[in-house]
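Bumping with the actual sequence this time:
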Amino acid sequence: MKKMLEFKAHDGEIEDIALGPDNKVVTAGRDFQCCVWQQDQLVTGLRWHENLPGIPDKAYRYQACRDSGTFLGLGTVTGSVAIHIAFSLQRLYYVKEAHGIVVTDVAFVPESQPGQELLGGHEAALLSVAVDSRCKLHLLPTRRSLPVWLLLLLCAGLIVATILLLQLAFPGFL
């Protein structure tokens, strides 16, 4: 093996590291941060005080991370579990103190045939394991969205309404 890249990712130890799509790397460090890297460049990061106002930085620390390509699963030293959108780090799911103590690892259920049975109609499933000797399954409900045909119909209606309003406001417009 040959070292390809070296850079300072965190102040202190790195608790966990996960490889994501497009050569991205996710790290969880003892400095209370979770970071997404592209080579040695910081793409984006999470800090508790920015995502959960009112909770002191030192109260939580990211302990485990996994990146499914679409989602980023995180576990903390306080037993909390969260799922974020991988590219924007928008939080979709959060359970405070899902475990009694430190979450030691998280893993997404694969989208294979056996995994589909666990998923049911949910968008993702995350397993969390903790020092409390428990393994828990967290199901991310499928997010509701508008069908593309309805979105196109609404856009067409908006264009027609705009033209009619312009014609009404400026008689001779067309």
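The tokens above came from a reply further down the thread. Helices lie at 48-51, 113-119, 148-169.
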